[in-house]
Amino acid sequence: MTETYAFDPDDTADDELLSTGELELADRAALRRIQGLSTELEDITEVEYRRLRLERVVLVGVWTEGSAADSDASMAELARLAETAGSHVLEGLIQRRDRPDPATYVGSGKVREVRDVVVATGADTVICDGELSSGQLRNLEDRLKVKVVDRTALILDIFAQHAQSKEGKAQVELAQLQCLLPRLRGWGSAMSRQAGGRAGGATGGVGLRGPGETKLETDRRRIHKRISKLRKEIAAMSVVRDTKRGRRVANDVPNVAIVGYTNAGKSSLLNAITSAGVLVEDALFATLDPTTRRSQTPDGLPYTLTDTVGFVRHLPHQIVEAFRSTLEEAADADLLLHVVDGSDARPEWQVSAVREVLGQIGGELDRSMPAELVVVNKIDAADEVALARLRNLLPGAMFVSAHTGDGVAALREAVASRLPAPNLLVEVLVPYTRGELVARVHAEGEVLAEDHTPEGTALKARVRGDLAGALEAFAVDGTPA
Length: 481
Known about the structure:
Layout (H helix, E strand, L loop, with lengths): L10 H4 L5 H11 L24 E9 L4 H18 L1 E10 L11 H14 L3 E4 L5 H11 L2 E4 H12 L3 H15 L34 H36 L4 E6 L5 H9 L16 E6 L5 E6 L9 H6 L1 H8 L3 E7 L5 H19 L5 E7 L6 H10 L4 E2 L8 H11 L5 E7 L4 H10 L1 E7 L4 E7 L1 H7 L10
Parallel strand pairs: 1-2, 1-3, 3-4, 5-7, 5-8, 8-9, 9-10
Antiparallel strand pairs: 6-7, 11-13, 12-13
Helix pairs in contact: 3-6, 6-7, 7-8, 11-12
């Protein structure tokens, strides 16, 4: 059956009503590959999107520790990663071993079984639930006769698809090159020398005699040069991020960072609190570029919310290193909103995975992480038994639904109670001509006493550093402002 799409000029007017995230989601859906979609046009007057066939994959995992349920959950997550990357999962196989086989990851017997499944299903790719060495990749591809991809390369491929900003694309490319460098392989002409032979010959001449340089060495050198260039570009782009962060710090604007497992609903929560309109999709690593939006507490005090990149179990260390400047947003925040998917079958896995990555970030930056407020999201999709279990596992956590709005108001109040309060005590006499300063004290500080005198408004209040500096000229009785 052929699917056709007719162009409607009136649809362009609706684009003005869509948020930025909705437009990005529409663009992403328009490029999605649909399995079995015909490319034959039945009517040339109609427009059809021609899409490629989905990649057909077989999943392979090694169960080394934990229970059978843990192994099944790991394979289910790998299947979701494969589907997000644009694949159609045909079959999944698990091998029980004490440790992965150093030559073929699953052992020679299991490799023959995987080969039979590949032939029977017509798969063109095998995805392994682990990080493979170059030798394991080569041996598996030689025996399976299809492309082999490991978990790290799969996650990096998803990142490459979803990166939107210039900084995000550079970070993904850096992580991919760091992953590729130790896995470079050479065979045939790739191991040949650049030059050699007798003078005047077709393959060499004066100055070209000697061992030469193999194609593999040339590739490795070019990758090192590209990595060095990308690091310089990312360092230059991070200056802009540091400038914005420095401005918030100088103005004493508290910052709240939203962290959590991928697809836990971080972007949805940001939209629910601030109406940011960022992209929301039921997919792993749907958003990579950090988004910062301004919000305020119920008392009117301003603060910023930053949506960070999602985490996952065994997040490749190349990602952590490449996205270092982005992940620093979490380390520099005043409060962490740790979002957990309440509808997930194993939410404690999510919590431990996120805290492991946060500990890794804190260790690399040599600093302690900010205070954490756990937020269990998607309570509308979770059953009561699971929620009762989470209340026992995560005491003090907030339970919300970003989709329906349940618990969001209580979450705003909880965030406000945990933000750093204004801590500079000032006593000032503000002239009536500077009423905007009085308004700022009421909006951004905590007024302890107020009196209207013939000379102006006498205030005793607690304020932050930037406002205290603006009030310094009106301090009374030598009180520091």
